[in-house]
Amino acid sequence: MRTAILGATSQIARDLIVSFSNMGGKHLHLFARRPSEVTKWLASVGLSARYPVDDFSNFANHEFDAVINFVGVGSPARAVAMGNSIFDITLRFDELALDYLNTHSACRYLFLSSGAVYGSSFNEPAKRDTPAVVAINDLAPHEWYGIAKLHAECRHRSHPEFSIIDIRVFNYFSRTQDINTRFLIADILRAIRDKTVLKTSADYIVRDFLHPSDFYGLVKALLSTPATNTAVDCYSRAPIDKPKLLEIMQEKFGLCYEITETQDSINATGGKPYYYSLNTRAADFGYQPAWTSLDGILNEVSAILSSA
User: Fold this and answer.
1) Could you state, in order of their start, the residue ranges of all structural domains in the chain?
2) Do 257 and 191 touch, CB atoms closer than 8 A?
């Protein structure tokens, strides 16, 4: 299957490219705003000249069976820095893909969406019947990212003639994670590496971390299914709560932490105490996750710390 990867500089896209390569995938074409970065990265992971790399201006000149759109925000800090430009960027590259489908109607389109489309509260996990809640009369900047993704999903449902599946990513973690970002797991890793004390709030949160191999399995399942127009939520075999995560990181890796009244972190899309989904619609397409959040984290953290 000839597959275009839009936004090949993103971490999750790069992990997927490596997964495809490890499984013998030969027909990827990588697109990015900075192609030289992608070329340099391919060389660094032993994939030099394995896949063609282009800027987006050459995208429409090729024939593809599938397009996977990763263009977007990779960290909370970046979401804050982008501000309202997230709307224009999301729309621009989504329209690039939709314009392609207008002339290549058999092409499949996978769009990297987000659990943030449901809204910013998450006082309970998402389910199949959970509505998206938008505080339309009192929008806050931390809601812009989710609304940009929601807008794209609405646009996709309005084109039932196209095969489009939106993949809602909640939490994702791999050994390629930039631990200088302000995710909780990155804060934990820096504290372990630097032998410092992690100061974190007592807020109870639950997260579901997707492992790279399960993301690859999900993508393969969705590309193999009969053409459809829908959305799926990402999930692992089991989520993990913050107290258990801190306890295990202390036990396995010597994490030192201190519970404080406040926490120096960036909630770019809201606090979200139960930011995960019980919507297992992806199973209808053959997706079966192999990793729990905890097992995936332990595997990837071990790899990060062994190479530090």
Assistant:
1) 3-177+209-236+272-290
2) yes
Closest to 13 in 3D by CA, of 26, 27, 32? 32
Banded model confidence at residue 181, pLDDT cuts 50, 70, 90? confident
Nearest to 241 by CA among 296, 186, 203: 203
Rounded mean pLDDT of 52-59? 95
Which of helix, strand or coil describes residue 228?
Answer: coil
Domain 3-177+209-236+272-290 has CATH 3.40.50.720: yes
Cα 50 from chain centre: 24
Tracing tokens 């053959």 back to the chain, one arrives at 286
Record the pTM.
0.94
Count CA within 13 A, CB hemisphere, residue 154: 10
Which secondary structure element, helix H or strand E, spans residue 190, and what is its range? Answer: helix 184-194
Burial class (CB in 10 A: 0-12, 13-18, 19+), 20: buried
Residue type present at position 243: P
Query: Which pair of structure tokens corresponds to residue 135?
Result: 């505080």
Confidence of residue 44 (pLDDT cuts 50, 70, 90): very high
Residue 52 CA to residue 62 CA, distance in Å, equals: 12
pLDDT tens digits along 116-147? 999 988 999 999 999 999 988 988 888 888 99
In single-letter form, the type of residue at position 202 comes to A
The answer to whether 308 touches 193, Cβ cutoff 8 Å, is: yes
Across all residues in the chain, what is the average pLDDT?
92
**C-alpha triplet 50, 56, 59: angle, nearest 5°:** 75
